[in-house]
Amino acid sequence: MSEAQIETEVSGEFERESVPKSKWKDWKSFLGMYAGEHAAGTEFVIGPLFLTTGVSAFDLIVGLLLGNLLAVLSWRFLTAEIGTKFRYTLYFHLEKICGTRLVTLYNLANGLLFCFLAGSMITISATAVGIPFDMQMPRLTDTMPNSLTWIIIVLCIGAVISIIAAKGYNTVAKAANWMSPIIVLAFIVCGIVALFQLNVNSFSDFWNVWGEGGEPFPGQIKYTFWHVVLWSWFANAAMHIGMSDLSVFRFAEKPSVGWTTAGGIYVGHYIAWIAACLLYAVYLQSPEAQVFVTNGEAPPVAPGPLAYNAIGVFGILAVILAGWTTANPTIYRAGLAFQAIMPKASTFWVTITAGAIATIAGLFPAFAMKLLDFVAIYGFILAPIGAVIVFEYFFGKKAGIQTFYAEKTGIKFNQAVFWAWAVSFGIFYTLSVQFDIFLSFLTLPAWISCGLLFLLFSRWYQKKIA
């Protein structure tokens, strides 16, 4: 038995080969995982943050409906399609195209960004655990840990989440299946309770919670319909058009399993965001919040207290579990990214390392409090690399380029990939900075640009090498 076969037998994660048919899973495993991942702790932050941007009722409710549909279509017809065709992890797939040296740089960036994202989820769970300890909650402007209690709670939560993630995909999926019904129920109950607290007795009352919108809170930008559509579409850009979920869909029995993402998206990124937004609307009416408003400050967005004020101890439990179910698969993905850099290292300990980095990130509230901004730039950086895989798969032969070029030629650094990403990133990020353009408006143009440039540069590069 070869070393690669032995590693696969031990880890069971098939990091460097196609997942065998005996290990394929039906739609039920994915429905539970996506429901758990996207009806999650971050939703308790993102929903309220929409309210701080002064968004109107139409822009929020209809914008989220359209943006989330585009996300589901991206998962189904791009990620699941390619994932079930080759059944490789994102990192192994990229290695065949980019070469080991280039993909190492990508894996390092990808793994670190996943860790920071998981850290924000640990932060969110900590706001719930800290309630019985009368812990001071982080504010929107906080960046550093504010107490010893905060540090201890974050470290404990991070340890538990890391161990679950390190036990592999099966454990992650099982954890999500156990917890997701509780979390979904909690979001729905929170929304209903908030409606009563806001004295909403009709659809017009519900609509008037946002009304025609208003001025954004200090430090926030004004969101319009297209801000909501594009942000909600690309909130998970790294996972769908960025192809990170190839690592998940490689276990799917057929491409149609990609539709299960709708179960998580429309519960988590629609119902849950709106429900959390309603919780924050209740809080804004409190004397405590009004003090912040009077002082020209944005009232804090602490998920634990928001849920606790609505449904008590059940709210605390829901926020804790919601943070866990999102952080688990995120740390799992980060572990796979680091595993690709160090293929001989133990998958378990690599994932534990990813969890440790995420836990350290969770100590700093800024990742959660600036989640709208962080998620936008996170998708903008990673998504264009996914275009390389998509454009090669759908248009590579028509463009006359050799697929899996690095694997077939033995090159370590595919310059066509690097320059396609670098030029696209440089142009569109510069436009965002120079003209103050909302970054999510430029994610799709950067993605398309990277894919087209990859095809053009590959034709030139492959002929030059030949």
TrEMBL record:
Recorded GO MF terms: cytosine transmembrane transporter activity
Keywords: Membrane, Transmembrane, Transmembrane helix
GO cellular component: plasma membrane
Keyword Iron-sulfur assigned: no
InterPro entries the UniProt entry points to: CodB
Transmembrane annotation, as ranges: 57-78, 111-133, 148-166, 178-198, 223-243, 264-286, 306-327, 348-368, 374-395, 416-431, 437-457
PANTHER family given in the database record: CYTOSINE PERMEASE, CYTOSINE TRANSPORTER CODB
Listed name of the protein: Purine-cytosine permease
Species, as recorded: Salegentibacter salinarum
